[in-house]
Design goal:
Length: 121
């Protein structure tokens, strides 16, 4: 995803094993889908690295110095493409857990409305 017109993902590392069965989907992805993915995303540096005996990974390095690692073991090539697209489309920020279900600048003094309210007549 771009922030003010600048793509946030700098580098995508595709780590795979040339022998293992869990890397079958990522090897098929590298043969068929990866060249088109690189062509569609010229702003992105894509590096492939061979790690024998390890499960396949996609590593995304972002401009804000964050890193995301996604394990893609036993996934099909379509699923690997979807994971790579999600890494490209994300901003690399850490996921924050919200304390409430709603976010507002001016919280209600009386409390949040719900369907369980009992109104006294």
């Amino acid at each position: 995803m771009s922030l003010r017109g600048v793509w946030q993902l700098k580098k995508l590392v595709v780590s795979f094993c040339d022998w293992g069965g869990s890397s079958r989907g990522i090897r098929a992805f590298m043969e068929s889908e990866l060249p088109a993915f690189i062509e569609k995303n010229p702003q992105l540096e894509v590096v492939t690295e061979l790690n024998r005996g390890y499960h396949p990974l996609l590593k995304g390095f972002y401009k804000n110095k964050n890193e995301r690692v996604v394990c893609v073991k036993n996934m099909t090539q379509e699923d690997v493409l979807q994971c790579a697209s999600r890494l490209r489309n994300s901003q690399g920020r850490k996921v924050l857990k919200l304390k409430t279900r709603h976010v507002t600048k001016h919280p209600s003094v009386q409390g949040t409305w719900s369907t369980d309210l009992k109104i006294a007549n």
